[in-house]
Recover the amino acids of this structure.
């Protein structure tokens, strides 16, 4: 406790960011330190799990101390420690968990396991302090594509999710075949601004009638077939048009399904979260669709879209308030479903 405020620390290490943050009263960010491994993994065109774990191990101690220093507190001022327990890369998760457990054991602070997707949703509470459930959440990132009915702070219903690639994964793969590099999302978004989104008709996959699930493997194959066909005929390719058309096709499906869910659930607020929430075309198309239906749209700033400790601290605060505290048997769950977060984390 500091100045009468409940202080939560959040530790995030589910993929390739080592992140620790300090948040007051679940809503005010006092510090948010992120050590990214993008440059390390860029040469491989994607995250290498073993390398990610090694760098988490090297970075966690210094990131933890930087977060305390930047917040102007000591660990004695912290009231609860939140940590991502899944889903994610198991080795990476274990580094954050081990550090959180060690600190909690040494200081007697309560330990709170947090589902990574719940963390992404909670990022919106930090950027929009007036926001509270219920609302509809669209979570789009390198590992997740979910439409979620957020009923309460700790109660969720997954309405739809990807059946194959997550949207961020599809962006990475298309960026790779275009020779753009890694991570693919920001690179395609930037290149698409120079292209015509209607130039190429890539497939839009909507699956069965009324389904809110996603499938992005078809459009990924469509891009590959288009590029291979052009190259075999010796024809030139406008990469900006490919990027813009691919992005347009993906975002049209995401927006359409999100709006279908919002209308069917009679939700007047849509929250967007995850790394792909920073995509400019998604924000433009979803924002337009929301305005047409008088639906409020919430989206955090880019620093809170990507993996960070502040979102984990925020989620941990609301779990702690609900009495959802863990003991030291808390473990990593790489494929943890969101509906199981109350039992496993």
């Amino acid at each position: 406790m500091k100045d009468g405020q409940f202080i939560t620390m959040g530790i995030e290490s589910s993929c390739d960011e080592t992140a620790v943050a300090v948040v007051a009263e679940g809503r005010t960010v006092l510090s948010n330190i992120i050590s990214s491994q993008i440059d390390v993994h860029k040469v491989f065109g994607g995250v290498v799990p073993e390398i990610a774990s090694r760098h988490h191990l090297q970075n966690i101690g210094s990131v933890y101390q930087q977060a305390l220093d930047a917040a102007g507190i000591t660990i004695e001022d912290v009231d609860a420690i939140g940590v991502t327990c899944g889903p994610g890369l198991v080795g990476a998760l274990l580094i954050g968990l081990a550090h959180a457990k060690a600190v909690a054991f040494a200081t007697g602070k309560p330990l709170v396991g947090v589902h990574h997707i719940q963390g992404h949703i909670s990022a919106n509470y930090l950027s929009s302090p007036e926001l509270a459930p219920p609302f509809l959440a669209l979570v789009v990132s390198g590992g997740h594509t979910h439409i979620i009915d957020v009923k309460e702070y700790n109660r969720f219903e997954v309405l739809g999710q990807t059946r194959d690639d997550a949207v961020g994964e599809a962006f990475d793969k298309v960026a790779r075949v275009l020779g753009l590099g890694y991570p693919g999302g920001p690179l395609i978004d930037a290149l698409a601004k120079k292209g015509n989104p209607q130039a190429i008709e890539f497939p839009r996959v909507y699956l069965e009638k009324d389904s809110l699930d996603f499938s992005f493997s078809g459009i990924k194959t469509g891009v590959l077939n288009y590029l291979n066909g052009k190259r075999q005929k010796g024809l030139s390719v406008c990469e900006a048009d490919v990027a813009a058309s691919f992005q347009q096709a993906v975002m049209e499906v995401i927006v359409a399904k999100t709006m279908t869910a919002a209308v069917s659930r009679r939700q007047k607020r849509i929250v967007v979260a995850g790394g792909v929430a920073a995509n400019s075309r998604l924000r433009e198309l979803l924002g337009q669709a929301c305005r047409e239906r008088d639906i409020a749209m919430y989206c955090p700033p880019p620093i809170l879209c990507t993996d960070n400790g502040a979102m984990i601290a925020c989620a941990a605060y609301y779990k702690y308030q609900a009495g959802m505290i863990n003991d030291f048997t808390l473990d990593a769950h790489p494929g943890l479903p969101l509906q199981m977060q109350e039992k496993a984390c």
Observations:
- The mean pLDDT is 94.
